[in-house]
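Exam revision sheet. Question 4 asks you to relate a sequence to its structure. Input first:
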Amino acid sequence: MRMKRIILILLVAMVSIGAWAKGDAQFASREHDFGTIKAKGGAVTATYEFTNTGDEPISIVTVTNGGCGCTKPSFPLEPIAPGKTGKIKVSFNPATFKGEFHRSVKVQFSYSRKRAVLKFNGVVVP
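Answer key, structure tokens:
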């Protein structure tokens, strides 16, 4: 009985340690306002900076394009070490838009199934 208790305690300790040693990304901001932009002015870019606040390197698995060809994300392909920063850039081409817009992209990191949502908005004028 005592041996089972020791094994159980060791198992719980190992699971707890595994829960501590993870990567985590903290964004400086998850939203960007382009303000007023011209439809024929060309693409504009928002930059979202994040820091790995965890204990292990993290990688970006994917960044969605927001569902249209007007949005093009770019992101680091190499892992981000603990304490280091990375940047996700999202270019938006307003050529086919008119008026107010609200868009987002979703970021899938290697440490979590939950996706981070990065939002951007503005107003497109002719």
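Marking note for examiners. The CA atoms of residues 8 and 59 lie 33 Å apart.
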